[in-house]
């Protein structure tokens, strides 16, 4: 009797799990396209969530997806990642002012002893004005303008550096006269 090496068996199991997740996703997309009612849609979403979570679990990764609130949590031996809708991510530094507006997404990542955060906020001001106001608030909080910046029509970013955190503040036109501001927060690189 010929047996496959352990690595090959694991690869086949991973492949089957990925196919199952893909099939469930296609089922969800197909049901949505055909105008399925809410009950069928929720059942398909739940099946997709379980398939993804089970496939990741077989690889030693803990994934939790909640379609109700849009949150995702991933844990592995390399670290963690969490993302949610409508709120600052847990542990976001309190000394970093965030522009007044609607928080669309907040995410955090922790791995190899380094923690970082990402936040997207939509504001009503045009890009240059929103970037200037958010940058002024960071400067008022003790952050200095860094060396890294770039800009083109409808998209720009500026680096801000403090003693504990480095921030890349980005601005992109949202297509409706307002701006999407993004805050990428990491420990200083120097």
Question: Could you explain the architecture of this structure?
Answer:
Residues 1-36 have low confidence and may be disordered. The protein has three helices and nine strands. The chain has a nine-stranded antiparallel β-sheet. It has two domains: 1-61; 72-190, Protein Transport Mog1p, Chain A (3-Layer(aba) Sandwich). Helix 1 (6-33) runs antiparallel to helix 2 (38-57). The chain has helices at 6-33, 38-57, 127-140, and strands spanning 62-66, 71-76, 79-85, 102-111, 114-123, 144-152, 155-161, 166-173, 179-186. By secondary structure, it is an alpha+beta fold.
What's this, in brief?
This protein has 190 residues and is an alpha+beta fold. The protein folds into 2 domains: 1-61; 72-190, Protein Transport Mog1p, Chain A, CATH 3.40.1000.
Helix content estimate: 25-40%
Helix vs. strand class: alpha+beta
**In what order do the strands lie side by side in the largest sheet?**
1-2-3-4-5-9-8-7-6
Shape: globular
Low-confidence stretches: 1-36
Distance between the termini: 59 Å
- Biggest sheet overview: 9 strands, antiparallel
The CATH class of the largest domain turns out to be Alpha Beta
The arrangement of helices and strands along the chain is HHEEEEEHEEEE
CATH architecture of the largest domain: 3-Layer(aba) Sandwich
The total beta strand count reads 9
Mean of pLDDT: 74
Q: Nearest-angstrom radius of gyration?
A: 21 Å
Number of helices: 3
Tell me the number of structural domains: 2
CATH topology-level name of the largest domain = Protein Transport Mog1p, Chain A
Strand content: 35-45%
């Amino acid at each position: 009797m010929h047996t496959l090496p352990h690595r090959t068996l694991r690869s086949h199991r991973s492949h089957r799990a990925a196919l199952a997740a893909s099939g469930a996703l296609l089922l969800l997309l197909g049901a949505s396209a055909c105008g399925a009612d809410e009950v069928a849609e929720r059942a398909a979403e739940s099946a997709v969530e379980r398939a993804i979570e089970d496939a990741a679990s077989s690889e030693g990764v803990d994934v939790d997806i909640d379609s109700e609130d849009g949150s995702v949590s991933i844990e592995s031996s390399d670290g963690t990642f969490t993302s949610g809708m409508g709120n600052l991510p847990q542990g976001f530094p309190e000394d970093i002012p965030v522009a007044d507006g609607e928080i669309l997404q907040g995410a955090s990542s922790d791995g190899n002893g380094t923690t970082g955060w990402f936040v997207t906020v939509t504001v009503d001001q045009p890009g240059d004005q929103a970037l200037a106001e958010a940058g002024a608030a960071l400067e008022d909080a003790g952050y200095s303008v860094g060396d890294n910046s770039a800009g083109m029509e409808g998209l720009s970013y500026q680096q801000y550096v403090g003693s504990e955190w480095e921030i890349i503040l980005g601005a992109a036109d949202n297509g409706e006269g307002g701006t999407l501001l993004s805050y990428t927060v990491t420990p200083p690189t120097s």
